[in-house]
Amino acid sequence: MSYKSLSDCIKDLKKHGHLISIKEEVDPNLEMAAIHNRIFKQKGPAIYYENVKGSPFPAVSNLFGTKERTDFIFRNSTEKVKKVIDLKIDIMQFFKKPMTYIYTPFTAWKALPKQKKFGAPVLYGETTMDQLPQIKSWKDDGGAFITLPQVFSLPPDSDNIMDSNIGMYRIQMSGNDYIQNKEIGLHYQLHRGIGVHHKQYNESDKPFRVSIFVGGPPAHSFAAVMPLPEGISEMTFAGMLGNRRFRYTKKDGHILSSDADFVIVGTIDKKNQKPEGPFGDHLGYYSLKHDFPVLKVEKVYHRKDAVWPFTVVTRPPAEDSSFGYLIHKLVKKLLHMSFLEFLISMQSMKRVFIPCYLSLEANGICLSESQNQRKSLPKLIRY
Question: Are 265 and 153 in contact (CB under 8 A)?
């Protein structure tokens, strides 16, 4: 099975008893996060919020709340992706065990993004930022945040989709000095991902156009956290893990994910920044307010059956631990190599799949609670 949309996944989870629906109105200001946290701690099902206060759109959370549900969602693609990785490590396996890898080229083919010129579902309608679920997880957060965004950017000297970067960087939708419906804040560093593109645009006269995909097939959200090296598009991984090529379309100079539930498009202000935060983060503290880039919002597109996915960022274990679990599962063979073998295989693959913290977290080891880190953050407020 391959999900064509987030709604497809929701229906599948409900059919197999992995999802519950809340029909009553729920408040995105703290209440939805509290419901999520309570059910996650009980290792409960995914949660579909039918009636979100202040928004015409429903929401869903806890999709990846357990390892078992994560395995269920990707049950038809995990082993196929592992075989692609096996051949990246040692191509000779294809000749030694041809029947084992006979279908692997078809999986690799699904890594190729596909342009959809007509009938993109995400172009069904338009809305505004204030109509989206304004989810605030912790009482001292600076405003509402998007916690599962897929932030798309291209370098200024290329319009080749394979040169794109898709990363999961937190986005502040409201609060502070942001002009409602016209500005949102993006929190990212300049040394990797979109930050590399930002530095390149600073040296260029071209406008820094960015698209923010929200929702779509679950593989798309997962791909946004996959630590691929610079120059490798996350669209390729999303296609393989989702068992379906990543569909995209072009609109007014922007790239849109055709299957996303929402796409926010705009231009980064290259000269000015605004305060972003505070934000309750993975350490169990609030990261403080600092200046970060601002996106000038131009359009907000949505599909007909749009659902707003979110998670709650908090101290581990949390829902995003499942990302580390699945990454570890996919590249487990790499972790059993000697260090020299690991370096050789990485050189042949021209990529590094996993930062150590994700692998360790997947195995129940958390590095974010060390006493040294706590002592180094005396000004932060515990939530």
Answer: no
